[in-house]
Design goal:
It is built from one helix and four strands; from the N terminus they run E-E-E-E-H. By secondary structure, the chain is of the alpha+beta class. A four-stranded antiparallel beta sheet has the order 1-2-3-4, with helices on one face. The longest helix has 12 residues, at about 60-70. The chain is elongated and about 40 Å long. It starts with 5 loop residues before the first strand and ends with a helix.
Amino acid sequence: MSDSDKDIFDSNDNKIGYWRKLEDGANGDNLYEVYFDDREDKGDYLQSQEFVSDDENAEEEAYDYARSVINE
């Protein structure tokens, strides 16, 4: 993880992943990536998903995505 990575926690304060900005985009639409632990997965690695958002909403969208995948 780099200094720009931001942790994501579930409702029990367990770390379930992290997110980061990948690129600045036009008109404030930036590229982000969220990394999360898919608890259904038997492997010991994180899944990831890229998404487009603005700085104001990116954290909430990263949390929503990671929590939806782990069914929280």
